Amino acid sequence: MSRSYSEFLDLRGQLDGDHGFDPVFMPDMLFPFQVACTEWAVRKGRSALFEDCGLGKSAQQLAWAENVVRKTNKRVLILAPLAVGDQTVQEGVKFGVECSHNRDGNPRKNDKIIVTNYEKLHLFNPNDYVGCVCDESSILKHFTGATQQAVTRFVNKLPYRLLCTATAAPNDYVELGTSSQALGYLGHSEMLTRFFRQLDDKGQKQ
Predict the structure, then answer these.
(1) What digits encode the pLDDT tens for the residues 20-39?
(2) What angle do CA 156, 159, 160 make, to 5 degrees?
């Protein structure tokens, strides 16, 4: 039985529903495309913003985090490379989003958006947070790495998750798989198994 390419893709589609909510906050300084991306990410609840350098991912992830905080009145953790943490806090001031840098895992009572570097994640308790942003999320690419495993275990306990990177490899199934796993969808091996599964002549999985 012959099939069109569209039918082939439909058989392997892994569409999932929204896990978020309608946005409740949006900085006035965002460009229209940034507003559209942020609104989409907030509604999805678990999503990835893979955008080129200079497109304002920091502003979008801060707006996303502020939406989660305002909706839930609980904390969001932003994981970033060591050199990016202070820059994220400064961006928060620029866009009217209050966040603080923390390296000991003990946020102050009124801290809602916490920024720390990946190397300090082991000091933080996922029970203290409702959402997490992974800045420069290509760090998750190495599926056997200790950092990837630690981050995935942490974020999989949270209902709201956002990945942001400018260096995602669109044809790299490992990175797509580890990103999916962090977002609570398919892992890289599951993705391969699902996509390349064998079908019989009636289109049924063998």
Answers:
(1) 999 999 999 999 999 999 99
(2) 100
